[in-house]
Amino acid sequence: xxxxxxxxxxVAILCATVFLAACEQVTPTPRPTPTRxxxxxxxxxxxxxxxxxxxxxxxxxxxxxxxxxGAQIPKLLNLNPLLPIFGPFPPEPIPSRPANIDQLTGLTxxxxxxxxxxxxxxxxxxxxxxxSNWQAGLNSADxxxxxxIDILGSNYANTRYTAVFLSKDPPLIGPIRxxxxxxxxxxxxxxxxxxxxGGSNGTRWLFSQTPIVNLxxxxxxxAYCYIPREGKLNYVGRLYTTGPRLRQYLTQKGWEKPIPxxxxxxxxxxxxxxxxxxxxxxxxxxxxxxxxxxxYDSASGKYLRFSTGAPVMDDSYPVTAQWGHGVxxxxxxxxxxxxxxxxxxxxxxAKHEKTDIIExxxxxxxxxxxxxxxxxxxxxxxxxMVTGKWQRQNEQxxxxxxxxSGNPYSLKPGNTFFxxxxxxxxxxxx
Length: 430
Fold this sequence. Notes:
- By secondary structure, the chain is mainly beta.
- Helices cover 12% and strands 32% of the residues.
């Protein structure tokens, strides 16, 4: 079902949606009318690639009951253009692989660790957070997504990470930040639990209409603890959690379970491609204060992360807490500081649209990113670049990758950073 068709259905169901919402129990935050994208593309760059992702036919989903305020409300989740399509999971037959091979990295891992629900954690990337070395957990993630968030005036406000944990339980994860509707493009693919600091009323309402396991801090405070910070912007770097605590919390709530994952394809031999040693994200509309650079390190076979010229560090140390409501973290061990690195970088070109969801007191608005259908991709591994495509039919499917000749593309065994950029975004390659 195309986005335009899904938009057209909103008006027809709006009255019914409001009627159902009026019958629900009162929740701690008000639930606004669902919002939808306006037809304003927010792309500054116009260089290639410029092909628009094309719609791929999808199967008609069945009604999935959404639980809001304790009430089960049947709802066709594909009728709102911002909501993902939910159907039977997994949506594709799972490939055969050894039980000790991580579906997300291609590396060997404890089979018991792989029989769990993936955890997606929203991690802040504000300049203060990076410069203060407050980020923790990125190097323990199987995969990480980075996206542009919020439009303030005509500019993007920032970038933010969604780190996915399956094979490892890091001792510290954070700083945990708020959810965005782009997470509808990630969580359904993994049937994962989303650790986040909440969201705007409009974003929270949309999440309430889905079956996603949403670990919104407002409603799940015992899953988190606080690290005190100084200054008026301390909120950007104070909320944390740990891998073991999240696993414990999911089990306590009855939300932990094995999730069959389609996964990615991996191969050891490096592909033929264009030699590229440095990939920079420093052109508009990427915010200049979040300018990022990946440099290939031949000794480790990984790409090292820099931002505005400085190394980006993963600063981790074990913590615990008297897990409850609004409790502080207690440090229990030594600090480990390593530069953020990755075995693969996958650049996904996708359509970005403004919505009328107001995300903060500055009147920044949320961004709808289309990651269904197909679009251009750039793959980086072993110091070379391969040009190709990404494709999937709906949000529950894994991305399928092909090179420019249409042959399947395989990732290098190891972790992967997915960089989501607008159509026409120009990379700085050296």
